[in-house]
Amino acid sequence: MIQLYTWGTPNGRKVSVMLEELGLPYAAHQVNIGKDEQFKPEFLEISPNNRIPAIVDEDGPDGNPISVFESGAILIYLAEKTKSDLLPADVRRRTETMQWLMWQMGGVGPMFGQAHHFMFQPKEDVPYGKKRYHNETKRLYGVMNKQLATTPYLAGETYSIAYIATYPWVSRHERHQVDLNEFPNVKRWYDTISERPAVKRGMAVPFAN
Ligand SMILES: N[C@@H](CCC(=O)N[C@@H](CS)C(=O)NCC(=O)O)C(=O)O
Question: Would the pTM count as exceeding 0.90?
Fold first, then answer.
């Protein structure tokens, strides 16, 4: 059984979507980051960076429990545990998947996150910060739109963990004030994948935000 520690944010939802896609049994536990529950000592033991999501797999690779934090590392761990084609074994397809996963982890997550911060939680109004991260968010949508003009999914022909990592962030497009009609390939991709039953279930798991 996998214990999932999460909250209703894009990074949290990546993991519940993945668990639903894989059909793995899991129990979801809420870590209310609005109430600083991410700083509780018992949570810090499995997630020392005080961020959700984190998992504990009671049936780890050597039969002993293993804990994993960082959503990208969790997606890779779960794909490898189940030998899932969501992280292809073939080196070319695996590398394509990993590069778009890293693009999400190093670009989309931090930049969209900062856009949300400056747009909605400012302790002071910082117009330069708002503009900088909104522009960077739109640049990343442009990169995605170009990539999706030639491939059905971000990392080639098949659905993968690169997509699972990116989708929950795009689901916040209204919040970061991006009109998907300006990025028609992203819109097609987003609308298609939104229909996947596992995506619907996974997006509904973490707790309201
Ligand atoms: N790179 C990390 C980012 C995780 C992250 O930023 N989580 C946020 C919610 S989306 C969080 O737990 N924030 C709590 C805090 O800032 O103290 C990942 O992908 O897992």
Answer: yes
Domains of the chain: 2-85 (3.40.30.10), 91-198 (1.20.1050.10)
Given a cut of 50, whether residue 208 has pLDDT beyond it is no
Q: Write phi, then psi, for 205 (nearest 5 degrees).
A: -70, -55
Indicate which atom in ligand 1 lies nearest the CA of residue 10: 10
**Residue 35 pLDDT > 80, yes or no?**
yes
Among 31, 49, 51, name the best residue to mutate to test ligand 1's pocket (greatest count of ligand atoms within 8 A of Cβ). Answer: 51
DSSP track, 57-117: ESS-TTSS-EEEESHHHHHHHHHHHHT-TTS-SSHHHHHHHHHHHHHIIIIIHHHHHHHHH
CB of 166 shorter than 6 A to ligand 1: no
Ligand 1 binding pocket mutation candidate from 11, 76, 101 (most atoms within 8 A of CB): 11
Contact 55, 67 (CB under 8 A): yes
In the chain, pLDDT over 70 holds for what percent of residues?
96
Q: State CA 116 to chain mean position distance.
A: 15
Q: What are the pLDDT digits (tens) for 75-86?
A: 999 999 999 999
Q: Is 70 in the pocket of ligand 1 (CB under 6 A)?
A: yes
Q: Cα–chain-centroid distance for residue 34? A: 19
Q: What is the pLDDT of residues 83-100, one digit of tens each?
A: 999 999 999 999 999 999
